[in-house]
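Reopening this one. Same input as before:
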Amino acid sequence: MSHIESQASGPPRGINRLVGWSQHPGILLAMMGQTFLNMLGVGIVGPVLPLYANSFQVSAAMVGLLISAFGIARIPINVPVGGLAERLGRKPLLVGGPLIIALSALLTGLAGSFGQMVLFRILQGVGSAFQMTAAMIVMADISTPRDRGRTMSFYQGALLLGTSAGPIIGGFIGERFGFRTPFFVYAGLALCGALWALTRVPETRPAEAPEQADRPAAQGNPRRKVTWQDITGVLLNRNFLLVSLVTLTVFFTRTGSQNTVLPLLGNERLNLGPAKLGYAFTLIAVVNFFTINVAGVICDRYGRKTAIVPSCLLCGAALVTYTLGNNYTHFMLSSVLLGLGTGVGGPAPAAYLADLELPGGRGLVMGVYRTVSDVGVTVGPILLGWLSDQFHYGAALWVNGLMFVIVGLAFALLAQETRSRSEEKRARQAAA
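Same output, byte for byte:
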């Protein structure tokens, strides 16, 4: 059975799905602009959040709980948000999500207790679920199997540009103006992201043709009410589960190792403050940025697995190398390796997912995918924080590294390649 994308869940009316985003670069550029603003704010608070939480004198596990609250909030609402994207459109979520983030970031900067920080972090997760799910659906709307890897790489390039600049700015602000100030900056950037989406991002939800009105969801009517059979059909698909595990591990690492364990390890072992941690996290994102476009070309030309499997193995090796050094130079070199690993695989999982033909429509598939991924956001900080408390930071990083290796090998052995040269030839013939 072919798992290539469903034609009926393609891009909006007026967009030629045979040529993809290249005929409508304004949509891609508008989404890149909003993503840059949002992720610049995320990057600014990244190196400061664990240290801000530590100022309330809590354990590493509690810091992990704070980071996890973001994912905990998104898990129950990702699927309903995907449904809203199909019924109401993408644009209301792209505007509403950043508005919620702006409010929650402002309140986080004003928090008077650790409990309040957790509550406001949950609110940030709600806003993120709206924005991120809708953004991924838009990227799938305007791309085709032939150019999907490159489309995702452009989008993630904007994401990485924001996260590249963010940590160094946040470290500077946090060190000189206090741990609360970066959250006020984040609030302002999120508000700008909402205004940008309102004025610059068009609606990409496809217009429903009359003959599709009574068609089942699995046959291409994504606005039909989603059933549990649709959700089960998605969750039982082997390829969907494997690519979701890859992304789960990436998010597990981002929130568990990068945002929780590495700042604490660097602070304890090397006495690194927010500024030096910001340099290291910026370096990861910069390497990502210069790698990801090449990765998109490789993904489209040679297949999604060609990018995903080496990425997993490189990330696993990078996490282990952090535990083997005792100076800042080694810490930075490990960051280069982690940036290379995450950059090589960057656009491939999202492109792989959008290739799959699954029941329930694009909103459901993206919603379930985000939910599975957010399990990593939630579990990573708590589990790795607990391992750090019980053993040491090195043990947590070893566990995370082995996860990457196991998931990468499982994907190599069990996942079906969704992009082949024969498909590329057919796509070119259809576009001619």
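So the earlier flakiness isn't reproducible anymore. For the record, The radius of gyration is 21 Å.
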